[in-house]
Structure prediction request, 987 residues.
Amino acid sequence: MGRYVLRRCGYMLLVMIILSLLMFLVYTMIPYDRAVTEAESFKTAYKGNPNAAQLYADKLADLRRQLGTDQPVLKRYLGWLGLGPINGKYNGIFQGNFGYSYTYDRPVIDVLKTPMMNTVFINVFATILGLGITIPLGIFCAVHRGSKRDTGIQIATIVGYSIPSFITAIIFIWLFAIMLGWFPVSGMKTPGSNYTGLAELKDRLYYMSLPLIVMTFSSLGGMTRYVRAAMTEALSMDCIRTARAKGLREKVVVYSHAFRNALIPIITLVIGWFLGIFSGSVVLENIFGLNGVGRLYINALNDKDFEVVLLLQMFYVIIGLIGNLVTDIAYGIADPRVRVNK
Amino acid sequence: MSMNGNSSQAVKKRGWLGRMFFGASKSVRDERYDSPGKLAFKRFFQTPVAVVAVVVLVAMFGFVFIGSAIEPVDLTEAGAEMLHSNVAPTQSFMKIPADMKDGAVDISSQGTFTIGVSTDGNVYMWGFNPNSSTNDKINVLNVPEEVKNSKIVHVAAGADHCVAISEDGHVYCWGAYDVGQYGLDGSMIAAARKQPDELINGTIDASQVQQLTCGNQVTAILMKDGTIYAWGNDGLSATNLSSVIKYNNNEARLVKVAFTTDGIYGIDENGVFVPGKSTKFNTVTVTDERGAVTTTSLEELIGGRKLVDIAATGNALALVTEDGDVIVSGMKTPVPTIPEGDEVKQVSAGTRHFVLVTEQGRVYAWGQNYRNQCEVPEKFTEAGAVDQVFASGFQNYAFKDGKFVGAWGLKGYLMGTDEMGRDIFIRLMNGGKMTMTVGAVAVIISTIIGIIIGCLSGYFGGMTDMLLMRFTEICGSIPFLPFALVLSVILQASNLQENTRIFIIMVILGVLSWTGLAHMVRGQILAEREKEFVTAARSMGVRERRIAFKHILPNIVSVILVTLTLDFAGCMLTESSLSYLGFGVQLPRPTWGNMLNGARNALVIQSYWWRWVFPALFLSIVVICINVIGDTLRDVLDPKTEVDR
Prediction:
């Protein structure tokens, strides 16, 4: 097991390097040079000077050397990682420099803190809610397969997973925020409020409830179907027939024997889904005006704040890779039959 | 097996004679096994939900592809109409009341509503209230009680207000007033030209009124003695108003005026064109049939002739000279030629078109025809059909001997309009075409890549498999939506043609979503590869590549088909999400995703429901149908589910 994890980690590192290079290549494809933007401010300062053009060109070259944008892509990539010198200095990710946000005029890592907390907060909540509903529902459907209730739920889940989350969001905003007035339309907290402690949490939950409901609702369809399929598969196994033949109570058969077998696909699903909502929440955070990672990402794209974009890209990549690794390891824990050290 | 069950029920007991000639049972034919494909096909169409889904989907395809071929979307300025922004679904624009049909004094309109006054002095209004959704809820369609109770002789409609003059000289105004359309209460009144006090509190001599006319948010009353009463938002809707009034007071009396969207133009008692300080229409650009552009000055075209009539659309002027010549400035469409021996009687203007009635009673219309304003019915093009046409806004009402004989123009919008006044129904059809095309092309690309990589990897195994699967894994680890967003930004920054850009978006979607299929195809092939028929083929010396693509691939077509269907829905959703966020297909080109882009604030969701309900409904229905079909396909193609049933 230990060797397997180690090998997976090593492989993950390799993939990460390849993908980070790919991301960096994409990043350099953006026709945008920070040095040009910076030099723009000097253009006005040189106005009136007889050799303004020459001074500007010098300044631009100087800035480009400082920022390293005159270097070839590979050198810039190494510089970004901190493995190569930019302007004679080693100052990259390995030195703790994650880039600089020019919109916020702060290091990217500072900019990321609050949105990251918010996103994780929402996603953990949504995952718990989603699992709490879908696992029992999926098991119910699998056990009562073919019944009228099952068919009804199946049709509802198809509808549920076909409707994109932004349409669900619009409908729910219309219904719960505008028609019924139960929840606020968007935002993170009551404007101008200055709550602390419990009141703050209450206010925060009040503002997050609608996004949470939408997130949970849009996940219901797909997850329920998945759990149902896994359970159906597990229930048709020979060991279940044996268990029933032994005269075990149906509850024990379903929850102890069958569910344990259905757990592997469910674990894959849960992890994949938990990580998927990080990139999936890009849409919802924008609709609800939540100060999360997804919204920061879109704003950074719109504001041409590309160092933030680059770091977030890497964040999403790492999240995905860690997800794969955790899935593999979790397999072994959930199912002793999977011999991961093979 | 279900087939056996069916056939045994079908067996009918026969007598011995019957058995002698026809055999014991008719079910021999029934017991024959259908091919798996045929069986699946049969079972698919035995599922009612799937059949409904297929019917609905085919109907949607028809609606989207045939509809967009019939009514292509107009991406130029004609497609949008700011006067019609946020109009609810309605067909009331041209519903002239029955009482108006016996005789009309005047019919007037700018944008969404029309006001008419009948010969017995009653005021009627029809159409859509442009302020129905704003917070102040001013309903211009509510005619004030005093107006209903008095005999009205003149009416005029602006973009959001109405003015009427009664026989006893009262000037009544109603509708929106915020930018000084009337009264002194508007919050922006400081910037507006104020309504004269004698009109608010006093009366004028109604018999001396030469003309009452409204511009966008301005109003002018021209008296026979040369007085001009004018008020309203002249900073926006009539920038040259002061200079025209100055001309009237100092040089020569005006006899007729007409408002465009941002100016006022008139002719004076000497037949001279009065543009005030505006120079907008001083040059006339004409494009002849060969495409050659000639520019002439308006003065030269008039050539010293006296002018007898003036009419103005939102951005064009028509001047009628004393010898019956019509000079148009600001409109590219040429003036229709009148047959020999006929003469111009009356030129009137809607908001985007002109209508000409000849002495012999023929009707000609020219200008913008996107909203059917110029679709003159056949019967009115013959002599003696009509003697008066009220071209008002986007509709035309024809009268003969004082009786209403017909109308043509814009009836309304079936599904309303968006914030730019674009017809949602037309955009829905064209947007659907775009969404479906993007989804289809993307899914075809992803399927081709997925099949090739999956087949190679599964069949050859070993090193090839390892390398290809690692490659697939790396591609699968790319975060889909964020990556697509970045690529879209790069595309936007580069100077590409819109069509090329859309094609590249399709390719990106396809290239990012093939990994799932590749995995599945590989797994299936690994299972198929071990079967006897492959061994047989190999022992017969069939080439490896031929085995992979010709022998094994057909056996996994069912899996591919299911994934293809479900991926199609997925790609459509991704495109919609991208466009919804503003990173996919760019406005004004419609897709179902970017039509929903406007529905990102509470006001739109609450007040302009038609702007999100229709695109959301259509997108959801199509995706649901595709998913139902894909799901049913999976059930009927998978032999395992047969046992479950």
